[in-house]
Structures are given as structure tokens and as C-alpha cells.
Design brief:
This protein has about 500 residues and is α/β, with parallel strands linked by helices. The protein contains 18 helices and 17 strands. The chain has a seven-stranded parallel beta sheet with strand order 2-8-11-12-13-14-15. Strands 3-1-4-5-6-7 form a six-stranded parallel beta sheet, sandwiched between helices. A two-stranded antiparallel sheet has the order 9-10. Strand 12, helix 10 and strand 13 form a beta-alpha-beta unit. Helix 13 runs parallel beside helix 15. It is globular, with a radius of gyration of 22 Å. It starts with a strand and ends in an 11-residue tail after the last helix. About 45% of the residues are buried. Bound molecules: iron/sulfur cluster (SF4). Iron/sulfur cluster binds next to helix 6.
């Protein structure tokens, strides 16, 4: 009996940007008695279904974006005689869907770390339960990933998680509902041990794959300090202290290391935290800027973000502390209009963002936006026989790019204007200008290559409607991904000690 773990993707690039961490965590959760799992990440290459035999167990992790491909794999694995188990955010939200469409024998809701061993044992005994609830386990029980199973030379960045959960409640995001609003922070020992293992293997670029690296803000502390009961304040202070302790330990790692994380903009008002990030080699952060207007922020319950000059100042504060920002923006919010696009592109330039992504508002299951949107949809409205309210089941090529009718713009106008902002931000001239953030000519050329790869992987393959353009972009991404990966590889440090 062989355990397989599959990360589905409808497009493969040969080389991956970031390791899909869940594959290596669930591999660690596989009891030794069942042997090492066979791992397939389809962002590298498609699964060879011929490797699946009667009696095997196939674990498939899905989010909404890759659920359709996941179901295809599930049906093929079941036809080959394997027990099929789905997990991940989408399976947690729609367990019955994976049974109906994905050939599932079992579904795991919530965290798989602790329950996976039981699931495999039940499958091999022929008694799988329809649904398992893995719950939300405490941070001390998170499994460290099996990095010894990582294929050689295939990924640019490794990924290590330091915290699950986010206290915010943005309307377009499901994280706070699935991972919870209570931050579950891993002990720093566990985090540092994984990072050292990765650096020993030659990874110096590591994504801290967290929901929100800054779960306690200065405002939270201030508000808690006004409560009569001091327990909340003590709790928040302890969480904050743990962050600083982790960063102190990261600071002791080799100086060539580069960490990247996801953080809310509020961290920009906390110079002590930014200083600690700088010392800890955290040199990049994805910041959800979402909208450059106050009305736009109100649309998505993100009133804690700034706009105008204050927004520019906050984003520059990251840069002053050596943290390069990948700014994330959403287009298609109800308050957007044709001038929003240029204003956003101009702000991205003015705020000295190093990278940016411009996504179109999509109602994802599990979010407040989705629940609202679903109520407005005519149940009879369908594409390729699939109700529009189940848009992730529509074949990739026929999937609309915009789902929410907009008060002043057509769906196509939003798509075209979004594409134009990508074109402007990632024009060669703009990229070259931004490449001034590194010094040597070699590093500047590397910056250009990586910027182009980012754009090909995320913009052209996601926004374009014409399939020739999508295929061309994917081909391009495949060609430049290999040389890009070499730029990220470092000399292994097999004897590196744990600080
Ligand atoms: S978008 Fe970011 S800040 Fe908002 S809830 Fe999701 S993880 Fe938290």
C-alpha cells in the first residue's frame, strides 16, 4: 500500500516559486508504518495516474481555485482502486461536493496534522468515515514539515509557518473563518529548527507562510489597556513578546538569509516591530492594500488601512526599514470607477512598492462577500451547465473573470483596465527603475527576470480571456522559471548549528 499526496493544478511550470507546505506537513503526519508518501505537486508536473494502484490511499488538498482539477484526480484515483481523501480549505467548506464530484471516500475538515494517521488506518481497514473533523489544533501540535522529501532543485522559496489564524475579518477573505481569529503561534524552537534544516539544504529564501505575521497591533494593546480586567492586555503582550523572541532568533541565522511574510499595514506604525523585522532578515512582505480610496476600504471592512498621503507614508515606512512590499490591490469594488485604475497604478509607483498584484474581486466561498453575493444570484443562471454560484466548477476556459455586476463598469472593462495596470507596473522601464533597490548589475538583471516571471505566472495566465495568450504566457513562464530558480539557490550549509 502506498500513500500519495497530490497538490492539484491545471497548469504546470516545471519549477515552483514556493513549496506547497501542506504536502510536506501531511507527509510528516503520515505514520512511519505506512512508509514515505509519494508527493506530487502539479504546479511542477501533472500527476501520473499510472502510479496509483488498488488499495493505495490518495490525499488531495484543495482550495477553491484548484478544486475542479482535484475532483478530476479524485475520480481517476478511485477508478484505479485507491481510497480517496480530500482535505484543505475548500473541502472543509464543501465536504459533500468532494463526495459528489471528486470520488471521495472521506473528507478531512480543518487541520489535518493530528487526524491524518487515523484516516489512513481507517482507509486501509476498509472503514473510512465520510467526514473527519480535524478541528483547530494548538500551535504546539503543528507538525514540522518533512523537508527530507523535497525534490532537489525544483523550488525557489521554501515555506515555514509561524502562526495560523488572523484576528481581522476582511469581507473577501476566508482565513479568519477557517483558521480562526485567535492567532496560534508556534514555539520559536520548532520554527528555527525547520529553517536551519532548510538552510543546511541550500535554501536561503524562505516564505513565512502565515495568515498574518503581525497579529497584535498597537491599537489592540491600547484598547486592551483601557479595560478594567487586565487579562486581555496580558494575553496580547505575551503574544507580541513571542513574536519578538522569534525575530531575535531569526536574527542569529546566517546573514544571507531572506525571509518574506504577509502582514497588515498597521505594522508600519510600529517602528520597534519594523526594526526587529529588519534585524531578523525579513526583507519582504505582502501587504493587503486592496483599495486606494476610503469608500473602497469600507466596501471590504478594511477601514484600518490608510488612504492618500498617509497610505504612501505608511508603505514607505516598510521600505525605510528594509522591508520590500508586495502590494496587493483589488479591482471591481462597488465604489471603483474608471479613474480608480490609474490612481492605483500611480500610488503603487509613488509608494515605492517593489512588487504588486492587481486582482479582480471574486466572491470566494467562506467569505462574507460570497454569502452576500450568493443571495443576489439567480439560481437558474449557469455556464456550461454549472450554476454561476458554483463558479469554481465551471471549466477553466469558460470561467468568467468578473462575477459581481458593477454599478458603472462592464465586466470586460474591469478586466481590460486591470490588465492595463499590470502592463504599466511591469513595463520594462518601470521594472528597471525599481531594480535600483539592488546594487550590482547581476542583481538588477535578476530582478528584471523575476519581475517578468511573476507577471507571466500571475497576471497573464489569470486575467487573459484568450486561450492563445494564456498558453503563450505559461510557456514563457516555463522557460524563464528555470534560470530564475538558480538565482535563488545557495551553497548548502550542512553543518549549520541551531542558534
Ligand atoms: S485579508 Fe489578511 S488581514 Fe484580512 S482577514 Fe484575511 S488574513 Fe486577515
Amino acid at each position: 500500500m502506498q500513500v500519495h499526496l497530490v497538490n492539484p493544478s491545471h497548469v504546470s511550470f516545471g519549477v515552483g516559486v514556493i513549496t506547497p507546505r501542506w504536502l510536506f506537513v501531511i507527509a510528516a503526519a503520515t505514520p512511519a508504518a505506512f512508509g514515505d508518501p509519494r508527493i506530487t505537486d502539479e504546479t511542477l508536473e501533472p500527476l501520473d495516474v499510472g502510479t496509483i494502484r488498488q488499495g493505495d490511499v490518495v490525499g488531495i488538498g484543495i482550495h477553491t481555485g484548484n478544486a475542479l482539477r482535484g475532483y478530476e484526480i479524485g475520480r481517476a484515483a478511485r477508478a484505479a482502486g485507491a481510497s480517496v481523501v480530500f482535505g484543505g480549505i475548500h473541502a472543509t467548506l464543501y465536504p459533500e461536493e468532494a463526495h459528489e464530484l471528486g470520488g471521495a471516500h472521506a473528507i478531512v475538515k480543518g487541520d489535518g496534522d493530528a487526524i491524518w494517521g487515523t484516516v489512513i488506518a481507517d482507509c486501509t481497514n476498509g472503514t473510512p468515515q465520510r467526514i473527519y473533523d480535524g478541528g483547530r489544533i494548538e500551535a504546539g501540535s503543528f507538525k514540522p514539515a518533512r523537508w527530507d522529501l523535497l525534490p532537489e532543485g525544483r523550488y525557489m522559496w521554501a515555506s515555514v509557518q509561524t502562526v495560523r489564524g488572523c484576528p481581522k475579518h476582511c469581507s473577501f477573505c476566508s482565513v479568519w473563518r477557517t483558521d480562526g481569529q485567535r492567532p496560534r503561534q508556534r514555539p520559536s524552537d520548532a520554527v528555527v529548527e525547520e529553517i536551519v534544516e532548510l538552510r543546511r539544504k541550500g535554501f536561503r529564501f524562505i516564505a513565512l507562510a502565515d495568515d498574518n505575521f503581525y497579529p497584535v497591533t498597537l491599537t489592540d494593546l491600547h484598547q486592551a489597556s483601557r479595560r478594567a480586567d487586565p487579562s486581555r492586555l496580558e494575553q496580547l503582550k505575551a503574544l507580541r513578546q513571542d513574536r519578538f523572541e522569534l525575530m531575535e532568533r531569526l536574527a542569529k541565522l546566517p546573514s544571507d538569509m531572506v525571509f518574506y511574510t504577509q502582514i497588515t499595514m498597521e505594522a508600519s506604525e510600529d517602528p520597534e516591530f519594523l526594526e526587529a523585522m529588519h534585524r531578523a532578515h525579513i526583507k519582504g512582505a505582502l501587504v493587503g492594500i486592496e483599495s486606494v480610496t476610503a469608500d473602497g476600504l469600507k466596501d471590504i471592512y478594511k477601514g484600518f488601512n490608510a488612504t492618500g498621503d498617509e497610505l504612501v507614508a505608511r508603505l514607505r515606512a516598510f521600505r525605510r526599514h528594509g522591508v520590500h512590499v508586495l502590494g496587493s490591490f483589488i479591482f471591481g469594488l462597488p465604489s471603483d470607477n474608471p479613474t480608480t485604475f490609474d490612481a492605483t497604478a500611480a500610488l503603487a509607483e509613488q509608494a515605492e512598492l517593489t512588487f504588486a498584484q492587481f486582482v479582480m474581486l471574486t466572491p470566494f466561498p467562506g467569505t462574507v462577500d460570497f454569502a452576500e453575493w450568493e443571495k443576489t444570484i439567480d439560481p437558474a443562471q449557469s455556464i456550461a451547465g454549472v450554476p454561476i454560484s458554483r463558479h469554481w466548477l465551471i471549466p477553466q476556459a469558460s470561467r468568467p473573470k468578473v462575477y459581481t455586476p458593477h454599478p458603472v463598469m462592464s465586466a470586460d472593462e474591469i478586466r481590460q483596465r486591470t490588465q492595463a495596470v499590470w502592463d504599466r507596473f511591469y513595463s520594462l522601464e518601470q521594472i528597471w527603475k525599481r531594480s535600483g533597490c539592488v546594487t550590482s548589475l547581476r542583481a538588477r538583471l535578476a530582478f528584471v527576470l523575476i519581475s517578468k516571471l511573476y507577471r507571466q505566472m500571475y497576471a497573464n495566465t489569470g486575467i487573459a480571456t484568450d486561450s492563445a495568450r494564456v498558453n503563450r504566457s505559461a510557456r514563457w513562464a516555463r522557460v524563464i522559471a528555470k534560470p530564475c530558480r538558480r538565482l535563488f539557490a545557495a551553497k548548502p550549509m550542512p553543518h549549520l548549528a541551531i542558534p
